[in-house]
Specification:
By secondary structure, this protein is mainly beta. The chain has helices at 3-17, 45-48, 145-148, 184-187, 192-197, 269-274; strands at 21-25, 28-32, 51-53, 59-60, 63-68, 71-76, 85-90, 98-103, 115-119, 124-126, 131-136, 149-152, 170-171, 177-181, 206-211, 227-234, 247-249, 259-262, 276-280, 283-284, 287-292, 297-302, 309-316, 347-354. It has 3 domains: 3-103, Immunoglobulin-like, CATH 2.60.40; 115-234, Immunoglobulin-like (Sandwich); 243-354, Immunoglobulin-like (Sandwich). It is built from 6 helices and 24 strands.
Length: 355
């Protein structure tokens, strides 16, 4: 037999006897060493060379198959996720199945996300405090809030049944501000939870809010550090805020100094940011809002310098103090009224003049 034919026969036998191999290169799965690759159709490739997330309930990946230089390739539609194991299978007639698993290394990222602030800012809060706002420096993961936020008593024990645990956590659109409510049923007198368990907070005592360091941010990285805020509790507040007691300080014409409103008590931080509107001649004035001095001052800085004339700050009656007392009614006005049903379209005008 001529030498050339012997070489070709040897190569044919080697191809038939060689085991196919599966590799992962730059996010693409590759099957080589199978004599049927040249005949495979990309439409049926998923049955021969499926790729899965390797878990108890395997999920087959979506992507694109191609034949390149005698190799069957699969490129996932979405990038492979760090920390996830993937399984590639080769199943063809007259071939023993081959399974290959690939662990995508988890990128070790230095934790940087922190709790920037918790509102209310004060360290002495009313016994019937209604809300807490947690501000994070970066987007957070959802579904962990009620496991990661705790209230400790003076002895350091976790207090149960303190917060209203909702099916859907109350996040802003950026997942950076979380709102947590104390259970209104325990705050409002006359309701069963209040009568049986009492108010969550008790006047004269101190408590500590704790946010676990293990809470993962939106990138799956834990917080940089645990957060703690200790505060004391004063008497309950059952009175609505009175706009007649507020003090407006007007700026001077030609400047971009802020107009400010000072309150005798702290008000709800998030509501202060969105329920006050500055107008002139019934048109909204463009600018930015700042709330400071432990939520006892609202400031508005205009985009353009002030013009001399009359202005009005319109305050929606839904604005509340720390105990949920709105401008339109106290929190205790109806012990059977749901907090989510309290709606009011009334706006209270606060006029001032720029000279």
């Amino acid at each position: 037999m001529p030498t050339g034919k012997l070489v070709n026969l040897f190569l044919l036998l080697f191809t038939l006897l060689a085991d196919p191999s599966i590799q992962l290169e730059n996010g693409t799965f590759k099957l080589a060493g199978w004599d049927g690759i040249s005949t495979i159709r990309t439409g049926s490739a998923a049955a021969v060379f499926p790729i899965y997330v390797d878990s108890e309930a395997p999920l087959q990946l979506l992507g694109t198959y191609a034949v390149e230089a005698g190799t069957l390739t699969f490129t996932p539609r979405f990038p492979l996720e760090p920390g996830v194991r993937y399984r590639a299978e080769f199943t063809a007639a007259n071939r023993a199945p081959i399974v290959a698993r690939f662990d995508i290394p988890k990128v070790e990222t230095e934790p940087t996300t922190v709790v920037e602030h918790v509102y209310p800012s004060r360290n002495r809060l009313p016994e019937n405090l209604l809300k807490l706002y947690f501000h994070f420096s970066a987007p957070m993961s959802r579904g962990e809030a009620y496991r990661r936020v705790h209230l400790l008593d003076q002895s350091g024990n976790v207090m149960p049944l303190t917060f209203l645990e909702l099916d859907e956590e109350l996040w802003d659109v950026e997942n950076r501000r979380l709102t947590i409510l104390f259970d209104p049923g325990r705050i409002k007198s006359g309701l069963v939870p209040h009568n049986e368990l009492g108010a969550p907070l008790e006047e004269g005592k101190s408590y500590t809010l704790v946010v676990d360091r293990d809470w993962a941010d939106g990138e799956g990285v834990p917080l940089k550090e645990e957060f703690r805020k200790t505060f004391s509790v004063g008497p309950a507040d059952g009175e609505s805020p009175d706009p007649d007691t507020w003090k407006i300080t007007a700026p001077k014409a030609g400047t971009r100094d802020a107009v400010s409103i000072d309150f005798p008590e702290p008000l709800d931080h998030a509501l202060l940011e969105r329920l006050l509107e500055l107008t002139r001649n019934n048109s909204r004035v463009a600018g930015s809002v700042r709330v400071d001095r432990e939520e006892t001052r609202w400031q508005f800085t205009p985009r353009d310098p002030w013009q001399a004339g009359d202005y009005t700050v319109l305050v929606e009656a839904q604005l509340e103090d720390l105990s949920g007392n709105g401008l339109d009614r106290p929190f205790e006005v109806d012990v059977f009224e749901k907090i989510t049903e309290r709606q009011s379209s009334e706006k209270i005008p606060l006029p001032f003049t720029v000279r």
